[in-house]
Every structure is written in C-alpha cells, then in structure tokens.
Amino acid sequence: MTSTPVGIHDLSFATTHYALDHGVLAERLGVDPDKFYLGIGQEMMSVAAADEDIVTIAAAAAKPILDRHGVDNIRTVLLATESGVDQSKAAGLYLHPLIGLPNTARVVELKQACYGGTAGLQFAAGLIARDPSQRVLVIAADIAKYELDTPGEPTQGAAAVAMLVSANPAILELEPHSGIYSADIMDFWRPNYRTAAMVDGKTSVNAYQKATQEAWTDYRRNGGRDLTEFAAFCYHQPFTKMAFKAHRHLLESQGHTAEPAEIDAALHNTTIYNRTVGNSYTASLYLGLASLLDHTGDLTGQALAFISYGSGSVAEFFSGTVQPGYREHLRTEENRDAIATRVALDYDRYRVLHETESPSDGMYHAIPEETGRPFRLAAISGHKRIYESR
Ligand code: COA
Questions:
Q1: Which residues are known catalytic residues?
Q2: pTM of the predicted protein model
C-alpha cells in the first residue's frame, strides 16, 4: 500500500532582540573563553528583551508561513514549549489576533522538555495521514533560562521554529520508521514555582547519550535505515558540543570507528545557527535542520537522521528525505538576518533582565518598548498578558 508523503512543507525561524557574547560572559565569570567556544561549543546566546516571551517569538516565526501559504485547511496548531506563559491557556491562542490564525483550527500546547516539538511533528503527521487535505502548523518556541553563576548559565538561549506540515511536502518527507526511548530521569526539570530550570548537567549528558543509543536500537528494530545511509545527523543541541558527543557515542556503540573528521562532516552544518543562538529547547533540533539546509550544497534525495531528546526523558530517532526543489522554499536570507540583526547585550542589562520577575499583583503594568522584533508584550493587567504588533 502506498501512502501519501507527509512532512515539512515550510520552515521559518525567529529569535529574540538581544544576544550576549560568550566572551563577555567568560570575562565576567573569570573563566577561559575557550571553555565556552571549544569546551561546550557556544559563541553567543539569544536573550529576550523585557517585552519578549515565547508568544512574541512564536508569532514572529509563524507569520511568514501564513503570509506565504495562507490559512486554508490549517485545522490544527500545535505549539510546543517548556517555557510557557500560562498553566492553563495554550500559548498558541495568543497568536490569533497577532497573526490571524483561523478560528477553525484546534490549538493545543505540548510539553515534554525539549522533545515537545518532535511530538508536535509526529502528531501532525498522524492527522495528515488521516486526512491529507489538512495542514498543521507546528511551532516550537522556548527561552532557556538557568540561574546566574551556575554551570547551566552559558547554555541559555532562545528561538522559535514554525513548520507547516502537509501532504506532498516541499522540503522534507518524514519516513514512517521511528525509534523511541522513554525513562523517568531527573536530569533537568522546572518546578511550577521556578522561572529558571534545574539541571544536573553530568547526569543529563549521560542520559542523552544512553537515550540516543536506545532510540537508535528501537529505530532499527522498527525497520529503519542503516547508519551509513544518512547524509547528515540533526541532533537536539542544548550546547553544540553535545551533538558531537552523542554522535561519537552512537557510532562507537555500533562498532564504527568515530573519526573526528567524519563526525564533523556529518554534524558541523547542523550546528552553525545553534552555536550563536544557544539552547532553544524544543526549537533546537529544527534550528539544526534549518542550519543544515541553509549551509549545505544540494541535498536532494538524501536521507537525514533526527535525534530528539527531552530531559526527563523521551528520545526519538527518526528520519526523512530531502525533496526535489527544496532550495526554492528555504528562508536562508531571513534566517541569517534574524541572527545578524540581534543587538549586542551588555552584561549589566543582561543581569537586570535575568533577575526581573513578572508582576503578580494584578495591577496594570505597562512594559516599555524594547524589542525591535515584529511583536511585543505591551502590558500585564489584571493578570492578563496584552500583546501588540509593532
Ligand atoms: N578550553 C577548552 N575546553 C575546556 C576548557 C578550556 N579552557 N575548560 C573546560 N573545557 C571543556 C571541558 O574539558 C569539558 O569538555 P568535555 O565535556 O568534552 O570533557 C567542557 O569544556 C565543559 O567543561 P565542564 O567542566 O564539564 O563544564 P561545567 O561543569 O561548567 O558544565 C555543562 C558543562 C554543559 C554540563 C553545563 O553547562 C550544563 O549543565 N548545561 C545544561 C545542559 C542541559 O541543558 N541539559 C539538559 C538538556 S539536554
């Protein structure tokens, strides 16, 4: 039986107004900048202005998709995040007035740490397999925040990736095989009463590697491709060095020699954006895909591997094939612009932004205009968040 191809028809990326240079952070923390540049593989990280949150960056990522394709037959909007703004209302609903989402689409928020975007993509594929005339808007949006002066601090970041998932996709067809590994682990979590995540970094690195290997084993059990068939491997990147560590671990676990040059060839182009954006949790894997497509020669017909990991933990290994003509649908210039137009953040303002808490008294609080991006949080009033287009 042949089934309709389903996958990513369009992909758009947005990030915050500010970026903090890891050189600035290293100087203030009194550490060798090479610990960040080489040790964890990060150069900069995106930082939200006071009037930005996951809704504003999600709207900025999704709007170009609606501008290009319209809203017809978008019957579902899945927004994945682990830095949501409300415990009850789905963040995607705030996008209605900002970008003109249709009232005839169901809107749901998904959470499982950094894995949530992949859950959205797979759920979307299932809905479209049931009715190929429908399209699903999947948005992965996160602002990664760890406590100041902790090992997690240099692995912050922020971004949103919006994907239009449809039948007969223009960019990437998802393959049906998938491998999963879920286990209860306390490697990274954020209790409801905290704004910054808790992380046990070493446990997390080990759990990520084990989960990658187990998800790969399950992928193969389910009829997936051989390791040698992939042109590139897109990993979730809490920091870019993690992808290299996990790939080496995977290759060695399968009896392959892991030559650094071979690992670099398979991964380097997936890490270019993440190296300067930082961790974007749910969006990170898909930012890796954008980076690969924007920086690599013709990949038509090539198979790509995807390794999604969300602490806590769920991992999934899946694959896709790059579609003929995909390059005409990329947003390379816009993606580079989103990164290049960030404003360099000075350290003092960074600390103030980091330490500022949302008002919780129910009074009217106007938020001064700070971001240069298309959408902003204008006020919080009566415990309601009020957004506006700029
Ligand atoms: N030059 C080059 N490399 C250097 C260096 C220098 N001057 N100083 C240190 N390094 C290397 C270390 O050797 C180490 O490399 P290795 O991992 O290959 O051994 C790396 O830099 C990190 O150093 P380490 O001392 O382990 O750093 P740390 O204790 O500050 O923790 C993380 C690093 C990544 C564990 C920490 O930032 C973290 O927990 N981040 C959050 C991770 C996360 O979000 N996990 C959840 C989602 S998957």
A1: 82, 114, 236
A2: 0.98
